[in-house]
Design goal:
By secondary structure, the chain is an alpha+beta fold. It has helices at about 1-20, 25-35, 40-45, 65-80, 85-90, 95-105, 105-115, 125-135, 175-180, and strands spanning about 140, 145-150, 155-160, 165-170, 185. The strands form 2 sheets. It has a 3-stranded antiparallel beta sheet, with no helix packed on it.
Length: about 190
Amino acid sequence: MAKNTDIEERTALLVRIKELRAAGNSISRTAQIMKMTRGTVNRWINEEKPDRVVKKMDPYISLDEKTAIVVKWAELIASGESRSDAAASVGFPTMMLNRWLMSEPALRVEFQESVGKKQNNTGRKSFESIMTDVRAGRHVWRDGGRFKLQLVEAALMRYELDGANVWRCKGFATLSGTDVMARDWTVIE
């Protein structure tokens, strides 16, 4: 039943797209008016088969809103729902939620804590507490980052992974406020 509604909605949108194109609007302008991606509009025009669900452009969502959505999603997963069913319950596609987790380490921590994996079990620390490890000569990095920090002759140096997975020194470390405020620093073994 829901699929038929989606197909009907898509058919109506396709008619509107054709009207805008017939009025002389470009594909980009039509996509902008319809609040859809240019690729989707172009594919619909080429296919003209209403068999997929409508995907509109991602709205801007603040980090606080994303955190609340991810925590709700994680709680639903922890209660036994599948990831896709839980994502449908919070109103966002699973792919978008996973993209948020990949791009925001703080969201990943919230997600893991909510589904039962505690932050302390993974060894994540704040920048302030990780500095004791840096002073002890250990290599540290943000969870999933492509750079690490190490104290070399009393200077904090930044190392980055190159394409061959080799650490290359990039000079003195400069950190953003996000790096300093993050609570996902770990020691590299």
